[in-house]
Amino acid sequence: MAVGGDFAGRRRGDTVAAVVRQWQAVHPGLDTGPMEIIGRINRCAALLQQAEDAPLRRAGLSRPEFDLLGALRRTGHELTPGELARETFSSGAAVTKRLKQLTERGLVERRGDTRDRRVVHLRLTDAGRELVDGILPAQLTYETAVLSGLDGPEQGELAALLGELLGQLEGRLGALRS
């Protein structure tokens, strides 16, 4: 996925390219390179959120709810609400609200800590586990279709580059929080 050559030609038609051209006309000396990356990441995220993940929608779940269920499933053990918030990059208030809905639906159950009554442990119910395991293959098929415009090597390179960027951002933000 080199920046020059064919790839650069393919991306000229996206909305961020138009915005960048407009800024370059107004301020020709500015380096709009960062805008080209961040703008595209933000635009992709917005479009993916608008699509609302068809398999999740059919199951009556939002992406953030599925992320909570998925965190409980993939870790394989009980988590506290705070641990779930960290696992899903969500605020405590958002996790609390989603957990209330998921508990009411019978997908998550709460267990009080025997040593500290303020602590709650969360785990998937059998219904929650079955729902996650049933949706995951369809969700991955959906995500594969979303990415089908990129061939395998391009997807791998994009994943690696985004992983690098994410690792750097997480490191910087983690250092700022310390």
TrEMBL record:
Start and end residues of each HTH marR-type domain: 34-167
Superkingdom, natural source: Bacteria
Gene Ontology MF annotations: DNA binding; DNA-binding transcription factor activity
Keywords recorded for this protein, A-Z: DNA-binding, Transcription, Transcription regulation
Gene3D superfamilies referenced in this protein's UniProt entry, alphabetically: Winged helix-like DNA-binding domain superfamily/Winged helix DNA-binding domain (1.10.10.10)
Protein's UniProt keywords contain Ribosomal protein: no
Listed Pfam families: MarR_2
PANTHER family the UniProt entry points to: TRANSCRIPTIONAL REGULATOR, MARR, TRANSCRIPTIONAL REPRESSOR OF EMRAB OPERON
Name listed for the protein in its UniProt record: MarR-family regulatory protein
Originating species: Streptomyces azureus
